Amino acid sequence: xxxxxxxxxxxxxxxxxxxxWLDGGDGRGFVALEPDLEVxxxxxxxxxxxxxxxxxxxxxxxxxxLTYEAGTAALLGRPAPRAALPGLVMRRYRAALELGAxxxxxxxxxxGAELRARLAKSTWPWxxxxxLGRVEALVDAEDYxxxxxxxxxxxxxxxxxxxxLTQPFVAGWQPAWQGRPLAARAAAVYAALQAATPxxxxxxxxxxxxxxxxxxxxxxxxETLIAIELGAGEDGGDLARSWPIKGTRPRGGDPERDLxxxxxxxxxxxxxxxHVMIVDLVRNDLGRLARPGSVWAPARPELVSLPTVxxxxxxxRCTLRPDWTLAEVVAAVFPGGSVTGAxxxxxxxxxxxxxxxxxxxxxxxxVALMPDGLRCSxxxxxxxxxxxxxxxxxxxGIVIDSDPEAERRECxxxxxxxxxx
Length: 421
Prior knowledge:
This protein is an alpha+beta fold. The chain has one domain: 4-Layer Sandwich (Anthranilate synthase), CATH 3.60.120.10. It is built from 11 helices and 22 strands. Strands 1, 2, 6, 7, 8, 9, 10, 11, 18, 21 and 22 form an 11-stranded antiparallel β-sheet that branches. It has an 8-stranded antiparallel β-sheet with strand order 3-5-4-19-20-12-13-17. It has a 3-stranded antiparallel β-sheet with strand order 14-16-15. It is globular and about 60 Å long.
């Protein structure tokens, strides 16, 4: 049995604890099960205490999340709303198994040995079928097109330059899976996504600690909000990198059409302008934390082809000033510019008016604090699974010349990995 299948089997077994399974860039991931410390809050005020505990015992790995609304509340200077998910959850794990070319345990060696033993004994009893039914939009097609037009009205009025507008979707459980444990359903979905449409920043997280877990985060995200490598920057400083994604085309089964979609995206003046706008925003965000003169971004984005879509991606990087703090990093970059728009503060107010529902962990951040740095994804292509099904959102950047129907179709292209009926 492969390591991924063992982890999925452990997750499916209602293991207790608070399982975290993270993929990460460069083939590096983590699996952890038993937290020895958990911080739960509605806002971001606890970040300083979390950082102090992390730096005091750097051998332990922390995993958790920040919701989009926790970030916008901090950005707008108002109290964070009470919501279905706490705004901040961070868990320090007794042991975490680092996945990759060479596996190793971080944390307590005895707890690490227990984790390895549980993985070795895990078996997968549920077959290979896809657990989810058809993905359905919860916003009528014309309603979404009208929201795009309203966003363009804000742009025309000079209120903003770009608005990342999203819409909600849901997929219920297939009848054959409805009697099985929710943990098994969530693990089966994530394992299938990882095998068929792997994403560099994917994650499977138990929302609720203990057994049984009534909600699971399933993330198929390719986007990194920020990664910090301690000591890897200029003159031994700490290196910070972000990879904003903006510009999308759906992939096609025909090779010629797929190549044409790539070329269309690379040559699109609209998509390039949209992308550059967000790269500039991210450069400005990182500039608040950087050593003077160290912020860098490429002249043109890179084309990245995923199993269901093509994207434009740029790496923005800098060397952090020596006295940076976790709270300052989050305040500077969160929520990510690619999932808000520009200018950020005014645009998130318009997003709230247009969407009229909480995003939750979607477009927030999934966070890992590690011995050698930290990593935050932007959980796009992400949903929360409960007894009723998987609740998703999907969206894209709206600019003045956006076509409302094309924007609606782009939302569907981005949830294709979850729609296999």
